[in-house]
Design a protein that fits this description.
By secondary structure, the protein is mostly helical. Helices cover 96% and strands 0% of the residues. The protein has one domain.
């Protein structure tokens, strides 16, 4: 019984790590797209001057 519980616990930790990693990567993607839009906006403003 204890062995199964340990395995289950390991699986939960594994999934939690994956979820955190997934969220982190998604946030990075959002930051990258935001940065690109911001840079594009700055370039457009420079051209308009």
């Amino acid at each position: 019984m204890a062995n199964n519980q340990e395995k289950f616990h390991e699986i939960i930790i594994f999934y939690k790590k994956n979820i955190i990693l997934d969220l982190f990567l998604r946030k990075q993607e959002i930051l990258v797209t935001f940065a690109r839009k911001a840079l594009l906006g700055m370039k457009i403003q420079e051209v308009m001057k």
